[in-house]
Amino acid sequence: MAAPDTAALGTVAARGAGITVASQGGKLLILLASTAVLSRLLGPADFGLLAVVLSVVALGELVRDLGLPLAAVQAASLSRQQRVNLVWMNGFLGVVCAVVLVLVSPALAGLFSDERLTDVLPAVAPVFVLSGFSAQFRAEITRSMRFGRLALIELLPAASGLLVAVVVAAGTGSYWALVLQQVVAAVVAAGLSTVWGGFAPGLPRRAPMGELVGFGAGLMGTQVLAYAAKNADTILIGAVLGARPLGLYSRAYQLAVAPLTQVQAPLTRVAVPVLARAWPDRERFSRFLVRGQLYGGLVVAVGYCALAGLGEQVVAVLLGPQWSDSVPIFRALCIGGVFRALAQVNFWSFVSSGRTTSQLRLYLVTQPLIVVLMALGLNLGVVGVAGGHALGYLVAWLLGTVWAGRALQIGSRALLRPALVHLVVWCLPVLLSTAAIARWVPGTWLPLGLGALGALVCLATGSVLVPAVRASVRTGVADMRRLRRRGSAAIA
Fold it and tell me: From which residue to which does the signal peptide run (predicted)?
C-alpha cells in the first residue's frame, strides 16, 4: 500500500469525517425520534428487557467479531483469499454464537428473573449469523474508504428499524416492537454490506492468517474488557434492583450515549485507516491524532456538558415527564460521556498502530476499575452507579493517554495538554452556564434555547481569549475549507 502524502491523506480524512458526521447527524435524529416516540408507547419494564437483550447481544458480537474486521482494515496489504477466509471465519463464529444464545436463554431468564427472555433471545439469535457473514464486506468498504456507502449502511438500517418498531408499538403496545427493531436493522445492514462489499466470496483455502488472527485476538481482549465495563451497570442493576430501575437507567443511558455512538463509532471507521497509513511517520501520526481528539473528543465533550446542564429539559422533551426520575442518572452519565469521548482517541491510536497487545494490558487495569467503582455506587442506587461510571471513565482516560503516549512514543503531552485546556476553557463554562439557565429560567423550551445560546457565547469567548483554543478553531476552519476542495476521492 503506497504511503500518501500529508495533503492527500488530510483531504480524504476531512472528506470522510464530513460525510460521516453528516450521516450520523441524520442517524442521531432517527435515534432521538425513536427515543421520544417509543418511550411514550412503551414502559420502563419493556426497556429494561431491551437493555438485557442488547447487553447479551453485544457480548456475542464481540466473540463473533474476534477483532477480524478491524484487523482487515488496519492491514497494510490483504489478498483476496485472506478476505474470503475472513468471511468464513466470522460467519462460522456467528453461527456458533447464535446456537449458544438459544441454549443459554433459559438460564439468563432465571438470572434476571424475566421469563420473557426465553422467547426474545432466540428471536434475536439470527442477528449473529447475519452480522457474521457480512462483517468482512463492511470492512472492505471501510478499507477502501468508500465513506458515502458506509454512511448509508449506518442510516438506512436505523430508519428501517425505527419504522417497524413504531408501527408495531402503536398497534400492539408490546415489547416485541423493540425486538423487531433490532432484527430489521440487522437484516438491512447485512444486505447493504454484502451487496456493496466489492468482492465475491469463494471457498476457504490456505492463506497467511496468523498475523490477522493475532491482531484480532489482542483487540478482542480489549473489547471484552471494555464490554464488561460498559455492561456491568446493566447486569448489576438488573440482577439487584429489578426491571423498572433498569428501565429508567437504560433510557437515560441510551439518551446519554447517543452522541458518542452516533458520532465516534462511525468516525472510528474513518480514523483507523487514515491513522494506519500515517503511522510510519510519527510526527504526521501525532498531528492527525490531535485533530481526531479535537473533532471526535472535545467537540463531543462540549455537547455532553450542555446536555448535563440542561438534563431536566432534555429528558422532559425526549422521554416525557413520566421519566423524570432518570434526570440525575442522565446528568451523571453525560459527565462520564465527556471522558469516554476523549478516551476513544486512545483506542484509535492503539488499533491504527497495531499495538493491540499494549492496549490489552491497559484495559486489564482500567476496565476492572470502572466496574468496581460502579459496583460501589450501587449502594446509592442507580444514581450511584451512574456516578461510579463517570469517575471510572475519568481515571481511565487519564491513564490511557499517558499509557498511549509512552507505548507509541508520541508523548502524552501532545494529547493531554490541549484536552485539559479545552476542558477548562470550553467545557466547564458551558456546563456551569447551562446548569444556571436550567435552574433559574422557568419552562422547558426557553431554557433549551437560552442554554444553546449561552453555550455558543462560552465557546466564542474562550476561542477569542485563549491562543491555544483560537489555534484549534483555525484548524477547524482550514479543514472545513478542505472539505470543499476537489481532490483524490480515494488513496491507493
Answer: none
Distance CA 11, CA 20 (A): 14
Q: What angle do CA 352, 356, 358 make, to 5 degrees?
A: 120
| Orientation of helix 311-318 relative to helix 445-465, angle to 10° | 130
Query: What cell does 372 get?
Result: 468496581
The one-letter amino acid code at 223 reads Q
Range of the domain at 342: 6-483
| Residue whose C-alpha cell reads 439468563 in the numeric block | 108
Q: Would residue 488 count as lying in a domain?
A: no
The Cα–Cα gap between 137 and 139 comes to 5
Nearest by Cα to 354 from 222, 265, 491 = 222
In total, how many domains does the chain have? 1
In a domain, 490, yes or no: no
* Residue at 491 is within a domain: no
> Does residue 64 surpass a pLDDT of 60?
yes
User: Do the domain assignments include residue 146?
Assistant: yes
**What pLDDT, on the 0 to 100 scale, is given for residue 254?**
79
Average pLDDT (402-417) is: 84
Residue 492 is predicted with a pLDDT of 32
Average pLDDT (217-231) is 74
pTM for the model stands at 0.65
Most confident of 219-228, 255-264, 416-425: 416-425
Kindly state the average pLDDT of the residues 408-436.
89
